[in-house]
Amino acid sequence: MKVGVLALQGAFDRHAQALSLAGAAPLEVRGSQYLEEIDALVIPGGESTTMMKLAESLNVRKRLMERIEDGLPVLGTCAGMILLSKEIFDGRDDQHPFGSIDIGVRRNGYGRQLNSFEEDLEINDFDTPFRGVFIRAPLVERIGNNVEVLASVEGHPVFCREGKIMVTSFHPELVDDDRVHRLFLETAFASN
Ligand code: GLN
User: Fold this and answer.
1) Which pLDDT belongs to residue 112?
2) How far apart (Å, rounded) are the C-alpha atoms in residues 165 and 83?
3) Whole-structure pTM value
4) What is the distance between the alpha carbons of residues 11 and 62, in angstroms, rounded to a whole number?
5) The CATH number of the domain where 151 resides is what?
6) pLDDT digits (tens, 9 = 90+) for 16-48
7) Which residues are CB-neighbours of 51 under 8 A, at least 6 positions away?
8) Which position among 78, 156, 160, 181 bears the catalytic label?
9) Which domain holds residue 184?
């Protein structure tokens, strides 16, 4: 299965490595033409404002939103979560997220002191904790009824799934543990 990693900006190469380990064939998506070749996509962390602008100017946004509407499975991490969300609280006026998962997020919502932190996460279906690395992470402040919460930190979801869209506010690609990527591939290619 060919799994794209959106490679417009941000931390995409570690995702490609994790996907290879998990058994997929990664492809760096650098423009809209690559979107025709992929069976699933990872949107990495980075700077959501820049990533959104690039997606717009490189004509990736429109075609990507069509493919998501047609069922393309997507994993969005950190800035990727922001792009896939329905609402951005205190985002900039020119930031229009894709609206692919019914959550509302606050950019850098963990505050200055907690800019970056690590936390052992209890994730549904994982036997042992997963080390969550949070870097200027978005805070999930609202979730829709159909959104499944797979892990939380202090009452705030940090790992959510709705259909074949999965989002994490942490960076699963930065640890030596490919269970989140494996779970994404299972979700993406489950026969339902
Ligand atoms: N704070 C960044 C943003 O708002 C996200 C940080 C990250 O992806 N590590 O885009």
Assistant:
1) 65
2) 12
3) 0.96
4) 22
5) 3.40.50.880
6) 999 999 999 999 999 999 999 999 999 999 999
7) 6, 8, 9, 10, 43, 79, 83
8) 78
9) 2-188
Buried b (16+ CB within 10 A) or exposed e, 115-139: eeeeeebebeeeeeebebbbbbbbb
Q: Please give the pLDDT value at position 95.
A: 80
Cβ-contact 148, 156 below 8 angstroms: no
Dist. CA 192 → ligand 1 center (Å): 32
Closest C-alpha residue for ligand 1 atom 2? 47
Give the pair of three-digit tokens for residue 75.
């994993």
Q: Residue 173's pLDDT is what?
A: 97
Q: Could you give the number of structural domains in the chain?
A: 1
Which pair of structure tokens corresponds to residue 59? 């004509």
pLDDT of residue 94: 73
Q: Which residues of the chain have pLDDT under 50?
A: none
